[in-house]
Amino acid sequence: MNYNQEMIDELNLLALYNLDSTLAGLKIHTSSATPSAVAAAHRLHAKGLTTREDGGYLTTMGHEAAEMAQTLFHLINPA
């Protein structure tokens, strides 16, 4: 099993969320974000992990996914 680039883009977005507050969301601006980040935001929303296509807030399932993504990042990059 390998991560493909789309998965990595989604994991990168999930890693940006602040898990300490449910009131902190993300806004992916189509004018300044990379096309891959915009597409990843759309996919996360379609999967039910975020509340909006442009980022928004994490859903309950999204919060769980972001926790896992961030934990994995810290495990493989213990800097």
Please give a structural write-up.
With 79 residues, the protein is mainly alpha-helical. The chain has one domain. Helix content is 52%, strand content 11%. It contains three helices and three strands, in the order H-E-H-E-E-H. A three-stranded antiparallel sheet has the order 1-3-2. Helix 1 packs across helix 2 and helix 1 crosses helix 3. The longest helix is centred in the C-terminal third of the chain and has 17 residues. The protein is globular and about 35 Å long. The mean pLDDT is 94.
Name a few traits of the molecule.
single chain, 79 residues, 3-stranded antiparallel β-sheet, 3 helices, 52% helix, globular
The number of E-state strands comes to 3
- Could you estimate the helical fraction of the residues in percent? 40-55%
C-alpha-based Rg, rounded: 12 Å
- Assign an overall shape: globular
Tally of helical segments = 3
Based on secondary structure, the structural category is mainly alpha
Number of domains: 1
Question: Could you state the order of secondary-structure elements as H and E?
Answer: HEHEEH
Spatial strand arrangement across the major sheet: 1-3-2
- Average pLDDT figure: 94
**Uncertain ranges:** none
Strand content: 5-15%
Largest sheet entry: 3 strands, antiparallel
End-to-end Cα distance:
26 Å
